User: Fold Permease from Methanospirillum stamsii.
Amino acid sequence: MIDIITGALLLGWTTLVAYLTEHVITCLIPAFFIAGGIAAFVKKDAILKYFSPDAKKSVSFGIASVSGTVLAVCSCTILPMFAGILKKGSGIGPAITFLYAGPAINILAIVYSAKVLGLDIGIARAVSAILLSIVIGLIMAAIFKEHDNEVRANAKKNLRFSSGGEERPKWVVLAFFILLIAILLVGTSQLDIFIRLLIVYFLSMAIAFLLIYYFSRDEVTEWGYEIWDLTKKIFPILVIGTFALGVLSYFIPPETFKPYIGDNSLLANFTAAVIGAILYMPTLLEVPVIGTTLGYLSGNMAKGPALSLLLTGPSISLPSLMVLTRIMGPKKTGVYAILVVLFSAMAGFIFGNIWG
Assistant:
């Protein structure tokens, strides 16, 4: 018995150390800095004000589908934000698009998925989440037209949003994010370690120049706070979860799941989508779940089912569906869950059979 416990703990520790060594410094830390900058320097009101049911669909659904990258939301914060924009007068379509796409295209999740599971999976996750969120949102808007009619009836209650004008040149914030992204790309590249350090040093100096001359001390402090807030919310869960998954894989090896999700059949993709809809996986934890526990990195899980689970897991789970039922009722929640599972399975099926 002691040998079993020791073996399980050792595998959990080995799994954790491997993930921390390979991904934290070059991947997660730069991504936390980018996500913190997005939360601090990009105005949320500028995104949310376009969700009205009378807004141009190409604008409202387009913004809703990519707002997760701007708002840096995760699976634990998307639900209250979703409830908030519904109360503020959002149309059901853009709100659902935001609900589905938000956690799936979180900048942290996309970067981490691409780094651990492969660039093709990372790109497929981002593109599929955007496209499916729009399709699902449009279907929900078509089915539940009464919601938008009620919102229009209460149009006078719409909130006014501040413009949030800034004195600094508009190019500064853009340059700031380009430099941060460049650090991320260089850090994860295959360049010689000394060359990477040299390039990152000069990029960091450029960022420091922008922060000193174009940002106030309060803004820099807010950026630091947002970085810390994201880190303390996500990183401990990721560490504990990765360790627990390593321990779990000792008792349930990845080969166990191969008969069910080891190919790119429609049934395998549907199975993976259902698993993702049931399990609760905090932001980023879906990556080691797929990579280690379900065996994608060891060849026991096919590409299609991996994408299917990535598209359902961050957006729905049994706990989140219970919360959604209280927010928008059982009928809308049920239809939403069915659409997410079906379209995610279909996306995984197409991806797996084309690029698998």
Summary: The CA atoms of residues 74 and 103 lie 5 Å apart. Residues 2-168+215-355 form one domain. The chain has two domains: 2-168+215-355, 169-213.
